[in-house]
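Table S7 (text form). Paired inputs.
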Amino acid sequence: MKKRYNSILSLLEKCRTMAELKQLQGLMITTSVIRDVIPLSRLVDFCANSESGNLSYANSVFERINRPSLYIWNSMIKGYSNSESPDEALNMYSEMRQKGYSPDHFTFPFVLKACSLVNGYNLGQCVHNCIVKTGFEVDAYAATALLQMYAASGDMHAALKVFDEIPKWNVVAWTSLIAGYISNDRPIEAVTVYKDMELWSVVPNEITMVNVLVACARSRDINTGKWVHDRIRQMGLDPFSLNLNFNVILATAIVDMYAKCGRLRTARNLFNKMPQRNLVAWNSIIGAYNQYGQANEALGLLSDMRAAGLEPDKATFLSLIGACAHLGALVSGQALHAYVSKGNLAKDTAIGTALLDMYAKSGDAERALEVFSELQKKDLTTWTSLIIGLAMHGHGEKALTFFKKMQEETMLIPDKITYIGVLSACSHVGKVEDGENHFISMKSVHGIEPTTQHYGCMVDLLSRAGWLREAESLVEKMPVEPNSAIWSALLNGCKIYQNVDVADRVRRRVRELEVDGSGVYVLLSNIYAGACKWEEVKMARQLMKERRIQKSLGHSSVEMKMLAP
């Protein structure tokens, strides 16, 4: 009997498929080994937690067990916490407690993970109380899971308190705290925690380094990022120096850090050295090229990516469509639109908004409106993109109509970017009174403090309408220093209405403030030339020369070929 028992245990260890498992289960029933807790526990664990397992089958076996062991309860809770139904893990935990079982340090991590996944913050606090009552708060395994739960719930104060109470800080606890700050959009604090970890002489692992690199990327901290990369080299973990055991995740994090910090040449060189590249690596380099204004490079990588056997995902398309918008590459944008329409991505709000923005920036307002109307779900970014796109291309009345429609038909609250589009629309159609009302309500109704861009829109509105004294007065009252765009808006009004007096005053302010940007000086020169004030023309050009400001050259581009679908 013992020989058969050991044989079945050995077969359970070697089991790889559910078909094999069911055969073993039949053998266990006929030999009565099924009554023994150890082989029964392993059978349930395989069904609940192996890659080829079946959680529903595990549950059917579990329901037939009269008195499940704590190990079996934990296996089921773990299985559900890793499934698409984490709430079932919490139900299982509740049932276990009701039946008089006491959880152990293996139970808590999976219950807390389920709490994180279902936003069960209150239940997580109850589990915390249970951990304290049962004395497991000193257990590093349970305490780290508790830290992760609080971090996932956004309560970093509680997470840090749990961390401080862990008797011995191991690398898992430190890494969990770093990851918690990153997930709560506090990357600078994540970097600080890592530096503290080094001071405590805790040796980081590859997971730690991936998280720190993510923090450096998000905070655009290239100096710390380079230091972390050097530290990885010192530890002998640099994937670009190893011939074997290439860690694609760590390599991707290094590339992403350099890319997001603007070191595109370094990022691309490292990217080219990668013996294997996952989708995240491709998206990282494509997104960085788009972010730093090298849209042609971003678009060029699509064919390379597909040649490598990878299909673009949502993140890829967002970057590529953004690149088309930046270039005004309408044909390539249309090709991408056709590509995403083959699947369900075109219905995605973020993709639809990107397409709308691309069409609007490429001057195809009609197609932008079509994309907008086809979207079932529209968020604030969608509405804002349409309003700005319409305003930008001379459809100010339509832009204002859609803003009104957004306010009347949705619960969305406009933000500062929305108001830039609204004020720009008012400027393009000369609606001074409406613009002033929106400028006032922006702060009084929605509590949005005007930025330089909002003031720029208002100065442009007043100047275009010929209200130059009011525009000048607004510039004087601004709580922030006017930039070259604001001076250019005011001077543009002076040029339209041939107002040399206001232009003179602007020239004096420009001289005092040492304003950069060739547009201001060119406008001044043109205004004086129009009034035949040649000495002043000479002064404006001399001032530009003294400050070594080059005249911005106009340029145009021609799209040569369609992006291959």
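Next pair, protein 2 of 2.
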Amino acid sequence: MAAPDLQNPPNCTAVLSLSGDHESHDSQLPDSGGWITFPFIVGALTGLTLAAGGWGANLIVYLIEEFNVKRIDAAQISNVVSGSSSLFPIVGAIAADCFFGSFSVIALSSCVSLLGVVLLALTTLDFLRPEECGLASTLCKNPSKLQFSVLYSGIALAVIGLGGSRFTLATMGADQFHKPSHQAVFFDWYFFSSYVSAVISNTVIVYVEDNVSWKLGFAITIAFNLIGLVIFLLGSRFYRRVKPQGSPFVDLARVFVAALRKRKVLISLDNEDYYCNHQHQGPVKTVTATAPTKSFRFLNRAALKTEGDTRFDGLIAKPWRVCTVEQVEDFKTLIRIFPLWSSSIFLGTPIGIQMSLTVLQALIMDCHLGPHFKIPAGSFLVISFISTAIAIPLIDRILFPSWKKLTRHSPTPIQRIGIGHILNALSMAVSAVVELRRRRVAHTRHLPVGSVTPMLGLWLFPQLVLVGVGEAFHFPGQVSLYYQEFPTSLRSTSTAMISLLIAIAFYLSTALIDLIRRTTTWLPEDLNDGRVDNVYWLMTGIGLINFFGFLVCAKMYKYKNTNEASTSNGVR
């Protein structure tokens, strides 16, 4: 790779050719990796995803039926677990990129998740779970401190293990291939395997847990986790290992600190007064460094050269006093995109609330398909997964080509996200209407506490289909937007920002449910006496307000790369 001339630093109007030639980069990579690693990585992903779904998909039901946890409390715990499962991938990505590498993080995380699932399986033993409830809820015995300790320790370890391996496997898988086209094929199979595994775990394993025994269900979960770990380790001699290169977040912190330390220095209009050497490590695409832009001019001081900032050879002498122009512009890019990114938090929050309440609704509805088969309450959410998996190829292969023929333009990532906002709000409205009808049926029949409402659980399907199709729009749209707009040094981190969004959304959904419980009577233990429909109407209103805020942010945002924005159809 060609390096910039450090002896004669270019001025800020020069072009820094950092080599965007993938083929030349490929020749420098070791011979390991390639398609021979594919079955090992996808096999590991399948086993670990099946294991995660085996304990996570039915967690609410397990807490209610086996640990006598109140329904809304169980929903709250599930939201916290889901949020943590989405937060820890950020930690795992940073650990892999900065310290240990992907292989070590995945192997260790898989072992941690295995230990967590084993502890969860132990809670099925009689002495590690409370006695079953009597006919009345007042006879329920609370779990002991020991029982709760084992339960929560198992959940915590399983969450940490899942977070450390989930997205790190995707990164390591892409690292095995030289060509971007091969990486794209790998990602297609990665998401396909993830969805198929989620569907299987949310149906087959959940059915075993509900209709055979929890012991067998958790035993299957342990087996899949162990199989995934073994498959991953079997491919160790074939993997390409990418060495950790440090965190780009340090460079961003340097920009802020340097600008703050030079807050009293006058901003220069001469481009040659700004430091433009690019000292990025690792392969990147061609980068053009120009003069600092006029937006957020305060940050331009971070690249302003003052006495003692650089050495005689042009290299930086004081890293926390001067940065490159590119690093400053990268920081500005994150500031510009932050409003769009933050608007997606309230896109995910209603989904988190809907997921929890849908399971609680299914528990008090008629979930039979025919006289002999009953859909487990924890399996209802699989409809959302199936809808997303079906909608993504239909959108990319049918809808978007038709859109392009009519408008002569492909939809931009922001437009995809906007459609997702609309479908998400519509899903909440449908949820409110369905719950209103269910409540009326329950009141008309004067049902006793805890009785099943004579209304088919199939009524819950439309709202789940809508939210699934909405995810098929906004999830790939967000991945595409962040990947193409984030700084080059943060490309690998950009997709993990989706995980952070999901984590914040689930934590916020937990806080909102708690606030609703404290200030209203909408969410009692017996949902027939509550107003779950009002919760959904509230989420509809929040979704619409957030959508209009998103429109304002989208109107003000300017794509950094107009060509990519106009041709982007999705993740690619």
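Residues 400 and 406 are 10 Å apart (CA to CA).
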